[in-house]
Amino acid sequence: MQRRALRLAFLLAIAIIGLPALAQQGHPLTGTWSGDWGPAAAQRTTVTFVMNWDGKNVTGLINPGPDSIPLTGIFLDVTTWTVRFEADTKDASGKMVHISAEGKLEDIGSYHRTIKGSWQQGTVKGDFKLTRD
User: Which domain holds residue 117?
Assistant: First the structure.
């Protein structure tokens, strides 16, 4: 009986010490993501996403800084690991342009996981790839 209690105490101690280490990564979308998007291999636009989980919702920005674009919608389907982003920005002439992207979260067990998929900005369609930094 004493041996069993000792073993249980040891396993409990391992769980208490190990769980915070696993939890440090937090929500699978939280963090800084960098990559690019474009309609062709020779036409790429570099992008940086910063996303944060507040315990209820994921919020974020595209290209943080003075010209950042707030993400108006970030949706994650954990059954398929599909991610959808929505945002609105202005083009060079000042006209509003909608951005929508949908991709698959890959290599989820890695800190440097990726999201790959399709991107549409206004009438321009292409693909994108983001990697968490």
Answer: 27-132
- Give dist(CA 105, CA 9) in Å, integer: 37
Within a domain: 36: yes
Structure tokens at 100: 């929508």
CATH code where residue 66 lies: 2.40.128.120
pLDDT of residue 49: 98
* 72-120 pLDDT, tens digit each: 999 999 999 999 999 999 998 999 999 999 999 999 999 999 999 999 9
Inside any domain, residue 18: no
Q: Are 44 and 38 in contact (CB under 8 A)?
A: yes
| CA distances for 5 relative to 2, 10, 12, 75, angstroms | 5, 9, 10, 45
Q: pTM (2 decimals)?
A: 0.79
d(CA 71, CA 62): 7
Does some domain include residue 11? no
